[in-house]
Amino acid sequence: MRTGLGLVGRSGAPGGYRESWLRRMRARFRGWRRTRPFWGGLWCLIGGCLIAFGPATAIRVILIAGTTVWLGIVVGVIVAVMGLFLWFTPHLRQIAGILAVVFSMVSLLTSDYGGFLIGLILGTVGGALGFAWTPVQRPAR
C-alpha cells in the first residue's frame, strides 16, 4: 500500500515491514501463557501421563478380572486433567492444584510407585506451582 509518507505494511509501520504470522502467533501464545499457571499445568500433564503409563503397559500383560490396574490409569488421567484445568480454568487454580498434589500422592500406592517416582514428583511440583500462581495485576492508569 502506498501513502503520502511512503510504503506502509500490514502492521501500519512505515517502510513496508510486515509482521510474520509466526511472530504474531508466538506473541498471542505468550499473552495466553502469561494469564494462567502454564508451567504448573504442563508439569501436571506430563506427570499424569507418566503415572498412567506404567499401569497402561501392565494391563496388556495382566488381563485378570478384578485387578486394580485400572485404578492406576484413572489416577494418572485425573492428574493430567488437573493440569488441563490449570490451563483452561485459572480461576480454579487452588482446588485443581490441591487435587493434583493429592492424586499424585495417591499414585504412589496405585501406580508403580507413582510413575516410577518421576510422575509423582512432576505432578506434585505442578500442583504446587498451580496453587501458588497469582495473576499479575496491571497498574492502574
Briefly characterize the structure.
The protein is an all-alpha fold.
Q: Could you characterize what this model shows?
A:
By secondary structure, the protein is an all-alpha fold. It folds into 2 domains: 29 residues, no CATH class; 96 residues. 67% of the residues lie in helices and 3% in strands. The chain has 6 helices and 2 strands; from the N terminus they run ββαααααα. A two-stranded antiparallel ribbon has the order 1-2. α2 packs antiparallel against α6. It is elongated and about 60 Å long. The model has no long low-confidence stretch (mean pLDDT 85).
List keywords for this structure.
67% helix; 6 helices; mainly alpha
- Name the average pLDDT: 85
SSE class: mainly alpha
Please, how many helices? 6
Strand order of the largest sheet: 1-2
Helix fraction bin:
55-70%
- Overall shape: elongated
- How many structural units, i.e. domains? 2
